[in-house]
């Protein structure tokens, strides 16, 4: 739920528990992205390269997708198509 998430982020400096939980979840998400990219690269389905950098870029980009401006858009919406194209270009294997 985006408003709750934004409120938690705003209180991040004040709460050790929130910081700890946030960092734990961020590490878990990073590991998931890393594994996704490693498997995708091994299968020739995503770009190879610096997996640590690619994982961080992918995590930052997708965290931004939790944006109210994206909610309730249809799959063929130009904004969603553009975002999908950006992610595709990021992950596309290079020949």
Question: Could you characterize the architecture of this molecule?
Answer:
This protein has 95 residues and is mainly α. It is built from 4 helices and no strands. The longest helix is centred in the first third of the chain and has 27 residues, at 16-42. The protein is flat, with a radius of gyration of 16 Å. The mean pLDDT is 88.
Descriptive tags:
95 residues; 66% helix; 0% strand; mainly alpha
Q: Cα distance, first to last residue? A: 40 Å
How confident overall, as mean pLDDT?
A: 88
Multimeric state of these chains? single chain
Strand content: under 5%
What string, H for helix and E for strand, traces the elements in order? HHHH
By DSSP (H or I, 4+ residues per run), the number of helices equals 4
In short:
By secondary structure, this protein is mainly alpha-helical.
Give the helices and strands, then pairings:
Layout: H1 2-10, H2 16-42, H3 51-63, H4 78-91
Helix pairs in contact: 2-3
């Amino acid at each position: 739920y985006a408003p709750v998430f934004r409120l938690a982020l705003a209180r991040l400096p004040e709460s050790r528990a929130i910081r700890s939980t946030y960092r734990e979840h961020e590490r878990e998400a990073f590991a998931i992205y890393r594994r996704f990219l490693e498997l995708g690269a091994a299968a020739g389905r995503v770009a190879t390269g610096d997996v640590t950098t690619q994982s961080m870029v992918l995590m930052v980009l997708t965290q931004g997708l939790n944006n109210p401006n994206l909610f309730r858009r249809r799959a063929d919406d130009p904004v969603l198509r553009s975002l999908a194209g950006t992610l595709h270009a990021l992950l596309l294997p290079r020949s």
